[in-house]
Amino acid sequence: MTISAVRRVLSVASECVPLIKTGGLADVAGALPAALAPHGWQMRVLMPAYAGISAKGTRTPVWQNDNVFGGPARVVALRQAGLDMLLLEAPHLYDRRGGPYAGTDGHDHPDNPERFAALCWVAAEIARDGLSDGWRPELVHAHDWQGALVPAYLTYGNVPVPSVLTIHNVAFQGVTGRDRLGALRLPEGAFNDGSLEYYGQISALKAGILLADRVTTVSPTYARELLRAEFGMGLQGVIAARGAAMQGILNGIDERVWNPETDPGILPFSVRTLKAKAANRERLKGDFGLTDVPGPLAVVVSRMSWQKGLDLLPEVLDGFVARGGGLALLGAGDADIAAALSGVAARYPGRVALRTGYDEALPHRMFAGGDAVLVPSRFEPCGLTQMYGLRYGAVPVVSAVGGLADTVIHANKAALDAGCATGIVFTQVDALGLAQALDQLCDLHAQPGVYRAMQRAGMKQDMGWRRSAAAYARLYEDIAR
């Protein structure tokens, strides 16, 4: 492919691996550029330059403005882990303690609406005028509510550049008071015509859904779920109004990073021989101080939240442990859930162990050593955890929602007989449903031949970005003519 054939797209995200990560959005933002390159799309990722980001390399200024939502700002370009990054340096907005969204007290930064509106406004300015190095996008791809005002600024600024909005989680909508219209540099008329208005307030996500040229979400099942009140979180009517402009494109995982044959943090193994799984299992037990686990060793790598269904675990672990099961959990979040799980771990030392916080390396060892991975979410737009589990031979036990339903084949009799079962999928997301799924896990684990066949079937699944990147490329080409 010649340089003249390369097309340019600007990705706008609030986080991106390897610079900062709080969830799956960061993995997607970091993986898409390489996945799209074979299709002729050069992607640059614009994100805030949060305090403490350990970006290495030369920062080249490519854009600046003296008044970006209350202070001077500039955009610097740099290469990071093979990615073309654009960092928005605005100390008055991003140079503060805590995480990207919340302070050290756990509360959201009170000016989050302005912080992420500024990101979107700068993206629209780059789309209008380009960068000082001559780079200008033909299309802007925005992610979640933090990027959802990009289509609004493009529309109201008469910038003739098309946009795509991807909804990673509709539960977070960027809602703020109407009195912030001026501070967000949004026109009064846009509120009055309904493009921004949401029950008397402003919704960044609603604006993006209505004003983007196309809207995607991160799995086909989640795209259908969003039309229902129990999943649409009040925006189901807005999403339904977009009709054919809305589609679900399943996320993938970076198979260069998540590869059990080459992963430097584990004892390598492949679908041909699972022998090293046993050694990785022993290492994992050592990591968590587990001792006697005669049954399946399950892992959980998750935020502790109601959405993720982790409040159900304390209700079902007594029965799971009684059948020989063990659990290693890594996560952070809801204090009540963490306390309940810590109580279970105290009752079953050597069988159940909990670590809080985030550790980039530990999940690799957990998937490599785990017999199963538990993802009992009440809703899950896509989910990457079950994909990592499939890749590493950790059989997923998942609820039948969103991307979990799209990626895991339930171990019913027909699927087991056909050799295509890859996990356990339960439909009633409550304690009884999860307990029954764990019982089935124990039953299957007691049949080594059957269980190994499931592990191998899962490891053979295509969990990468090849098909999804092709779908995004087709979408881009359709609107950026």
Account of the 3D structure:
The chain is α/β, with parallel strands linked by helices and 481 residues long. It has helices at residues 24-36, 91-94, 112-129, 144-147, 150-156, 188-192, 204-211, 220-225, 229-232, 236-242, 275-288, 313-322, 335-347, 362-369, 385-391, 402-407, 413-418, 431-445, 448-459, 466-479; strands at residues 7-12, 41-48, 60-65, 73-80, 83-89, 139-143, 163-167, 175-177, 197-198, 201-203, 214-217, 246-248, 297-304, 326-333, 352-356, 372-375, 395-399, 424-426. The protein has a nine-stranded mixed beta sheet with strand order 3-4-5-2-1-6-7-11-12, with helices on both faces. Strand 14 (326-333), helix 13 (335-347) and strand 15 form a beta-alpha-beta unit. Helix 12 (313-322) runs parallel beside helix 18 (431-445). The longest helix is centred in the first third of the chain and has 18 residues, at 112-129. The two termini are 19 Å apart. The mean pLDDT is 95.
Count of the separate structural domains: 2
Could you give a short account of the major beta sheet? 9 strands, mixed
CATH homologous superfamily label of the largest domain: Glycogen Phosphorylase B
Count of DSSP E strands? Answer: 18
Query: What proportion of the residues form beta strands (DSSP E)?
Result: 15-25%
Arithmetic mean pLDDT? 95
Give me the CATH fold name of the largest domain.
Rossmann fold
CATH class assignment of the largest domain: Alpha Beta
